[in-house]
Amino acid sequence: MLGREKPAGQQKAGRSAGFPKMACVGDFNVLSSSIPATKVELSVSCRNLLDRDTFSKSDPICVLYTQAIGNKEWREFGRTEVIDNTLNPDFVRKFIMDYFFEERENLRFDFYDVDSKSPNLSKHDFLGQMFCTLGEIVGSQGSRLEKTIVGIPGKKCGTVIVTAEELGCCRDSVLMQFCANKLDKKDFFGKSDPFLVFHRSNEDGSFTICHKTEVVKNTLNPVWQAFKISVRALCNGDYDRTIKVEVYDWDRDGSHDFIGEFTTSYRELSRGQSQFNVYEVINPKKKGKKKKYVNSGTVTLLSFLIETEVSFLDYIKGGTQINFTVAIDFTASNGNPSQPTSLHYMNPYQLNAYGMALKAVGEIIQDYDSDKMFPALGFGARLPPDGRVSHEFALNGNPQNPYCHGIDGVMEAYYRSLKSVQLYGPTNFAPVINHVARYAASVKDGSQYFVLLIITDGVISDMAQTKESIVNASKFPMSIIIVGVGPAEFDAMEELDGDVVRISSRGKFAERDIVQFVPFRDYIDRSGNHVLSMARLAKDVLAEIPEQFLSYMRVRGIKPSPAPPPYTPPVHVLQTQI
User: Fold this and answer.
1) ∠ Cα 554 560 566 (to 5°)
2) Cα Rg of the chain, angstroms
């Protein structure tokens, strides 16, 4: 992943000095080039490791590997320190990773008993390994995952405990207010109309605009409204990075007059209102021309308040469950499932488009659902034995209990349904949306959030009812993902995705944007790499879920539940290398 950090504690001492630097191996990844949602710190502990030393206990080290999206190659991400003579290590060195809800990050933790200074792992005794995803750790209760160590047949290798902690600087925002005194008069008939423009400096010395205040009309002593900005936007988390503030006089034609500028930093601003935060506004051109030039006025910081934003992970850590429901289109326009041209064709060698979309989205969301039981519905088919048309039937044939175990269980029920129902029509979405909305309406306390995935091949038949259902559902804790498969025109679907124009029904607008639509054909990898197609699809359709989730919690004023108390390992004496 782009911009991965080295785990803390780069310097090594004692025996581990021979090990390579912790710089992670990882090429630039086109899928991950966006700013990470957040960074998490992973802490690793083990209990009852295998004892490989004859006269003392093992001297363990943990090595973390990650897997690049689209290929199966494992790459070393980093290593902890070595701890001498213990089977119950609590490693001090952490792994700091970028976290994206919408990506599946496969992890492998390998454990070795270190016998020499050699950095070559094959020279040391293998103690076992554990596989998981980053989502699995974050989605576990209290973001604490405990799993059995495997890898040595016939041996009990102990357990590993991995805890994820979100790093704080990613989520702080600042509420600031400024005023100015005796600014230069720029307007011929009146005073100036001043506003401020904030820029953060980049690594290469250039500047990026990050905030503009409102214009205060006709004054040389303006007081601007307080504004809120994230610390990441202001200085990218670097407290000493230069922040440049420019002062302009607003002009109607857009040719705003430059009054002057000053520089500061987050660290200086964080001192709050004081003599250190009164800044002279300097106009370099005037300063160069006029010998007696002092300044073009002053800008004063009136208040500075740090606020920590609650994040998606705070709710997950506090126990909020994400409930995943899938609804599959069984209309006749998909084509006869026994024919290779059908979108529902069951190819023994590869997944069809429905299977790919279902697996891509489901495998990520299932990490956030503790019971892994997913309702799976179908619509647009004639059901046995009487051939009645249904727009809301259970794929497993049990309307009282439509739950399937895991994504594999959903896939199995989908394939079974294809053999028993007759594809028919029309394409009605409203019944399945209302089905999930009924459940979501009954749990409004923030303990659960519902995600409905609709996979469809075609043009929607009940547009008015579907719009009404979406407007109604926007009041509840739910999001809807629609994936269009096949070659059809999906123009009407774009209308449901409220990114451009908020969806409305009978004059009532949706409370939140809860629909994300994508056509699957946009994600097909030309080289035929389905793993890459699925990763791209999942990234795009799931990227909006955390913000949709937070918008519901904010509107309802729901705060995250406190996380369970952190894990405290049993006390035992450790001899750690110094």
Assistant:
1) 155
2) 29
Which part of the chain has CATH 2.60.40.150?
38-169, 172-308
Topology at the third CATH level for domain 320-556? Rossmann fold (3.40.50)
Nearest to residue 76, comparing CAs of 90, 89, 62?
62
Give the single-character DSSP code of 123: G
* Torsion from C-alpha of 385, 387, 391, 393, nearest 10 degrees: 10
| Buried/exposed code over 382-395 (b: 16+ C-beta within 10 A; e: otherwise) | bbeeeeeebbbbbb
Residue written as tokens 């519902």? 450
pLDDT along the chain (578 residues), means of 10: 33 36 31 55 94 85 89 90 91 89 94 92 96 95 94 95 80 91 84 92 80 92 93 84 94 87 96 92 92 94 89 91 96 94 92 93 91 96 95 95 96 96 96 97 95 92 96 97 91 79 89 92 81 87 91 91 66 46
CATH topology of domain 38-169: Immunoglobulin-like (2.60.40)
| Number of Cβ atoms within 10 Å of the Cβ of 400 | 5
CATH 3.40.50.410 in the chain, residues? Answer: 320-556
Whether 47 contacts 159, CB under 8 Å: yes
Cα–Cα distances in angstroms (integers) from residue 290 to residues 286, 537, 559, in the given order = 6, 60, 57
Beta strands in 15-80 (DSSP E): 38-47, 60-67, 74-79
Spatial strand order of the sheet with 422-423 comes to 388-390, 381-383, 422-423
Contacts of 442 (CB under 8 A, 6+ apart): none
CATH architecture of 172-308: Sandwich (2.60)
Contact 333, 340 (CB under 8 A): no
Question: Residues 432, 434, 438, CA angle at the centre, nearest 5°?
Answer: 120
Q: What does the pLDDT read at residue 290?
A: 87
**Encoded tokens for 376:** 């799976």
The three-point CA angle 189-192-193 to 5° equals: 120
DSSP string, 197-225: EEEEEPTTS-EEEEEEPPP--S-SS-BPP
Confidence (pTM): 0.71
Whether 380 and 362 have beta carbons less than 8 Å apart is answered as no
Pick from 486, 362, 469, 466: nearest CA to 414: 362
pLDDT score of 170: 58
Helix crossing, 353-365 with 530-542: angle to 10°? 60
φ, ψ at 20 (rounded to 5°):
-65, 160
Distance CA 496, CA 517 (A): 8
What does the alpha-carbon distance between residue 60 and residue 194 come to, in Å, rounded to a whole number?
A: 63
Asked if residues 262 and 281 have their Cβ atoms less than 8 Å apart, the reply is yes
Measured CA to CA, the distance from residue 355 to residue 360 in angstroms comes to: 8
**Predicted pLDDT at 36:** 46
SS3 (DSSP) at 98: strand
**Rounded distance, CA 392 to CA 328, Å?**
10
Query: Residue 423: helix, strand or coil by DSSP?
Result: strand
Measured between alpha carbons, how far apart are the two ends of the chain, in Å? 32
3-state DSSP assignment of residue 280: strand
User: CA–CA distance from 54 to each of 58, 60, 129, 326, 565 (Å)?
Assistant: 9, 15, 22, 54, 38
